[in-house]
């Protein structure tokens, strides 16, 4: 079995992701397009589940957070005020020997391509993708693809405040695509140029900022633990003052033990009143809260838990990958939390006989309104179990010839491989009980 810190694990998960339809390199028939990926039939299910798990925890289960879905394209004014036009840069160097370009802080002074140690002076490279909106060229038509979803929450602060009658502490949450022209995208979907973020801006009275900062660090750490990432592969890392982003008064990362070592999974930042102040000054619209109890206007501080959906999916895949030996055979099993697995249930008729197909479809009709189900009739039942184990399906429901007589089916558990016979009229409850324990 590959250890958590090994290239072998990364290779195994990357291969499985491609072979089983989780993640494909983008535009592969044209030789690929570096660092972009497409999510296949199983990947799209899993990515949706990751985002749904986040939305459930961050919005649905809370009465102090509301949702938003803001535009990806934005005018330069937003990015000037946010500080991104000036400071959202990485240090770019060219290798003098092979001419490859690198992010200076990621290469320890040695060109990963040719081993040379001679580079040009580092220059600030802005990571935002710039484009033209509309058919007329010129400064007025310049637009940027957002490099973070956060700014949409700040520019809509007054809209949300007035339409929802919220008062601090409250949050605005958003899931969506962000784009960064990363100099060295790497490690599968860990760092890509197009990715999905799950961010929440939590607006608080300034005096409560420290307490909420601690609260969100603990809450976000617990979210990953609750979805199955083991304790020894998660840790918190507080940034040193000199490493903080331009907006941050304090940042703590939830880190995951990736095959290449500890690295960021999510960042929780205390952004102070930086963003609302910047946008108030630049737009002329006062982005503040009027507290009727004290008769005071104030600019709330912002605590921001900022996660990557695609990066989290990768961490969940890496943490779930396992190999064990069943009846003398090594099997690959993804021990995914049922909430994240691409399919919760696979329905497997023992043979292709039409009578079994009819009953199996009855089983599917019973389960599909509640669960994502796969239906597989090809090859031996043993092989089909292995195929479901490999993609993390927690339960298989097998329909056999006895089922036609006794209207009962067999539930087989991914992790223990234990099997149990269950009457059809109690199947939905039996499945629910097993998926939620
Ligand atoms: N609004 C704050 C912000 O965007 P960030 O640390 O730059 O903070 C937040 O990004 C999260 O977004 C990261 O922790 C990571 O999970 C994800 N992320 C950032 N850049 C990424 C990239 N190039 N590819 C994939 N995920 C990325």
Descriptive labels:
7-stranded mixed sheet; 32% helix; 437 residues; Rossmann fold; binds glycyl-adenosine-5'-phosphate; alpha+beta; 29% strand; 3 domains; 5-stranded mixed sheet; BirA Bifunctional Protein, domain 2
Q: What fold name goes in the CATH topology slot of the largest domain?
A: BirA Bifunctional Protein, domain 2
Number of domains: 3
CATH architecture of the largest domain: 2-Layer Sandwich
Bound molecules: glycyl-adenosine-5'-phosphate
The CATH superfamily of the largest domain is Bira Bifunctional Protein, Domain 2
The helix content, as a percent range, equals 25-40%
Largest sheet: 7 strands, mixed
Find the structural class using helix and strand composition. alpha+beta
Q: How much of the sequence is in beta strands? A: 25-35%
Radius of gyration: 25 Å
Q: Write down the CATH class of the largest domain.
A: Alpha Beta
Task: Describe it.
The protein has helices spanning 7-19, 41-60, 76-82, 84-87, 150-155, 157-164, 209-226, 274-283, 309-320, 354-367, 381-390, 401-406, 427-436; strands at 23-25, 37-39, 65-67, 73-74, 89-94, 101-103, 123-126, 130-132, 142-145, 170-179, 194-204, 234-238, 250-258, 261-272, 289-291, 296-298, 301-308, 321-326, 329-334, 345-349, 373-375, 395-399, 408-413, 419-423. It is an alpha+beta fold and 437 residues long. The strands form seven sheets. The protein has a seven-stranded mixed β-sheet with strand order 3-10-11-17-14-13-12. Helix content is 32%, strand content 29%. A hairpin with a 2-residue loop joins strand 18 and strand 19 (329-334). The protein folds into three domains: 7-73 and 128-317, BirA Bifunctional Protein, domain 2 (2-Layer Sandwich); 89-126; 343-436, 3-Layer(aba) Sandwich (Rossmann fold), CATH 3.40.50. The two termini are 27 Å apart. It has 13 helices and 24 strands. The model has no long low-confidence stretch (mean pLDDT 95). It is globular, with a radius of gyration of 25 Å. The structure holds glycyl-adenosine-5'-phosphate (GAP). Glycyl-adenosine-5'-phosphate (GAP) is lined by residues 148, 150, 180, 182, 191-192, 195, 197, 199, 264-267, 304, 306-308, 310-311.
């Amino acid at each position: 079995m590959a250890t958590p810190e090994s290239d072998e694990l990364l290779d195994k998960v990357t291969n499985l992701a491609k072979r089983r339809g989780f993640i494909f390199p983008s535009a592969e028939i044209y030789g690929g397009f570096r660092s972009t990926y497409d999510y296949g039939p199983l990947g799209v299910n899993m990515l949706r589940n990751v985002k749904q798990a986040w939305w459930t925890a961050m919005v649905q289960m809370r009465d102090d957070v509301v949702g938003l879905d803001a535009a990806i394209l934005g005018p330069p004014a937003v990015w000037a005020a946010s500080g991104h036009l000036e400071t959202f840069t990485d240090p770019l160097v060219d290798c003098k020997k092979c001419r490859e370009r690198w992010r200076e802080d990621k290469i320890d002074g040695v060109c990963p391509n040719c081993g040379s140690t001679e580079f040009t002076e580092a220059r600030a490279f802005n990571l935002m993708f710039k484009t033209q909106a509309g058919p007329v060229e010129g400064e007025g038509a310049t637009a940027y693809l957002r490099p973070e979803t956060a700014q949409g929450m700040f520019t809509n602060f007054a809209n949300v405040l007035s339409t929802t009658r919220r008062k601090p502490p409250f949050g605005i949450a958003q899931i969506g695509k962000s784009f960064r022209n990363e100099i060295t995208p790497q490690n599968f979907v860990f760092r890509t140029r197009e990715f999905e973020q799950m961010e929440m801006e939590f607006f608080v009275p300034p005096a409560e900022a420290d307490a909420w900062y601690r609260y969100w660090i603990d809450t976000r750490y617990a979210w990953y633990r609750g979805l199955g990432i083991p304790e020894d592969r998660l840790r918190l890392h507080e940034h040193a003052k000199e490493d903080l982003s331009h907006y941050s008064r304090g940042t703590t990362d939830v880190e995951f033990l990736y095959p290449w070592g500890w690295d960021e999974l999510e960042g929780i930042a205390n952004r102070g009143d930086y963003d609302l102040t910047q946008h108030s000054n630049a737009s002329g619209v006062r982005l503040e809260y009027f507290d009727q109890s004290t008769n005071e206007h104030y600019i709330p501080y912002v605590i921001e838990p900022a996660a990557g959906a695609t990066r989290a999916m990768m961490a969940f895949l890496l943490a779930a990958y396992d190999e064990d030996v069943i009846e003398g055979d090594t099997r690959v099993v993804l021990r995914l939390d049922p909430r994240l697995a691409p399919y919760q249930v696979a329905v497997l008729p023992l043979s292709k006989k039409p009578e079994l197909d009819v009953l199996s479809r009855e089983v599917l009709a019973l389960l599909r309104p509640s669960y994502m189900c796969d239906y597989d009739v090809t090859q031996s039942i043993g092989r089909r179990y292995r195929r479901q184990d490999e993609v993390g399906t927690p339960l298989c429901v097998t329909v056999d010839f006895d089922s036609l007589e006794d209207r009962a089916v067999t539930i087989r558990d991914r992790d223990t491989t234990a099997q149990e016979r269950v009457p059809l009229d109690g199947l939905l409850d039996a499945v629910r009980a097993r998926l939620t324990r």
